[in-house]
Structure formats: structure tokens, C-alpha cells
Design a protein that fits this description.
Two copies of one chain form a homodimer. Chain A is about 30% helix and about 40% strand. With about 90 residues, chain A is an alpha+beta fold. Chain A has a four-stranded mixed β-sheet with strand order 1-2-4-3. Chains A and B meet through helix 2, strand 3 and strand 4 of A and helix 2, strand 3 and strand 4 of B.
Chain lengths: ~90, ~90
Amino acid sequence: MENDIIFVGKKPIMSYVMAILTHLNSGNNQVIIKARGSTISAAVDISQVTMHKFMKDLKISNLEIGTEELSDKDGKKRNVSFISIEMKRQ
Amino acid sequence: MENDIIFVGKKPIMSYVMAILTHLNSGNNQVIIKARGSTISAAVDISQVTMHKFMKDLKISNLEIGTEELSDKDGKKRNVSFISIEMKRQ
């Protein structure tokens, strides 16, 4: 489960798509894409490209948005939005 | 229903939050935030700020992501990711 999570950062979208395909072609049945703040849009793109262009039997099994409290490097706390997209092979 | 949709563009987040609060304080029970492409992250922020800072009885009642086909100004078609966040007062 923990092992199924792909965190989205600043790399190009296709590198996350490739990571997901590798994960799902290595005996894993599901993947969870997690992203915070401005990378949320990229997370949605990554899910859509993976499902529609590469793995047609992949479906969204759970979708969540919410707020997490993060500490920045000065120790100040701030709220950041997140998205969590769980996808399973059918 | 159609009337309940707020489309997210390039304005500051708070202007959409205000539009939602006005909508919900004018006899409407629900609102749907819709966003495409890079404004998806802002849509999530808008939902979170509205729920957590301004209207604590507001809950997410439906959440959807997907792909839409759009035509650009040259008539070329391209696929764009979207998010749709439906929220209802409890």
C-alpha cells in the first residue's frame, strides 16, 4: 500500500507515467498518485495520460482531496491542498 | 444545476471563494467548481479555503476527474484534463 504511492514533483509528466507503468507491470495491481499544491494539476494529467494512452484496463478506484499541514524550512506551519488518485487494474 | 457551476480561470482564488459564498447565501444548497488544465490546483485550493475557513457545514458530495476534448482557436483538437468538485451544505 505505502509502496504503491507515487509522489508528483517537478519532473516532466511522462517520467511519472513511466514510473506508474513500471510499477503496474511488476506484479502490482494498484497505484496511488499523490500531489500537493501546484502539482495537483500535473497529477490529474498523469492519471489521464496513463489510463487513456497506455493502460486501458486501469480505472480510478478512489479519489480524494483535502488539506495537510506542512512545516516550511523555518518551522512555520502552513496549510497545503492535496489530491490522492487511487487507480486499479480491472 | 447548470446554474450552480463556478468555472475557475485566472482570477485570484479569493474572488472564486467570494462567488461561492454569495451563491450559497442566496438560497442555493450546492455548488460545483469546474476547472481545466493548470487551474485544477486552484480549484482544489478554492474548495478547501471555502470549506475550512468560511463555511464549516459545506461538504464534498461528488468529486470527478477526466479528460475533455477542446478546440483551440485554429480549430485543432486537444485533450485537456478537468476536475469537478460538487459541494453541498449539510
